[in-house]
Amino acid sequence: MKTSTLALAAGLFALSGAVTPAAAALKVITTTEDLAALTREVAGDRVSVESLARGYQDPHFVEAKPSFIIKLNSASLLIAVGKELEIGWLPPLVTQSRNSKIQVGAEGYLDASLTARILEIPTGQITRAMGDVHPLGNPHYWLDPRNGRLIAKAIQNKLSALQPADAPTFAANYAAFDQKLAAAEKRWDATLGPYKGTKIVTYHRSWPNFCDRFGLDVMGYVEPRPGIPPSPSHTLDLIRDMKAQGVKLILIEPYFDAKTPNSIARETGGQVLVMTPSVGGVKEATDYIALFDYDVKLLADALKQVTGH
Ligand SMILES: [Zn+2]
After folding, report:
1. Model's pTM, two decimal places?
2. What is the pLDDT of residues 159-169, one digit of tens each?
């Protein structure tokens, strides 16, 4: 029934000549809103783009919905963060989509991590022992604008290969994004410059790339290991270290329980700041640059308060 309806629809389109460029264009599905936003920068209106996860969700633990399978079934390109960020939810969906174009290794599958700068790559044996969710290095790498640029470039190359007629547009859009991002980076550097070297704590290891780029020093984490909830002994150690080093700011992602961070803040005289790691995490973070605009301002205001300068 479904097949015949589709065939009928295709026939009608062909007869009426109603196939518009938009209808014929690539259908891109991304795992996260950050990748969707970067795809939109490069693609403009030449492809359709949709993200599976929402920006306010923990990208490690997204609830897989049947609608995701339907979206993947008709996709021409799937762009994933990789480094096992989506390993808890994406692989079965890709299998169940029965779409040979987007299987891992196929032309319609892009692992955005392959050309990005990845931090915290474990040395020695790779293991998921104790539930560490970052076994291949840190998968939150999009939070460095230099990586945003590298991801956008990889997307430009992939879109150009899949839809060559629009390659000049993708190249021009990339160049415009590159310039816009460079101007924004000057702005962010100026705002965060006074706080270089400030020590902070974060809940999850979401921010190593961000902090590396802007010169902040992450001295500890509320989670004992990535993906492992706080334990009393780890929390006590963290409070002791924060007091000893005068650390006053705890960044938490919107999807974690603030109870432990709040009690750490009470013990240390510090502050908890909820900062969103993804486009769409808050209404202001409408695109990749707007995400940084929002976070940089929020963070600078908090750093001003805790450092007194
Ligand atoms: Zn993570």
Report:
1. 0.91
2. 999 999 999 99
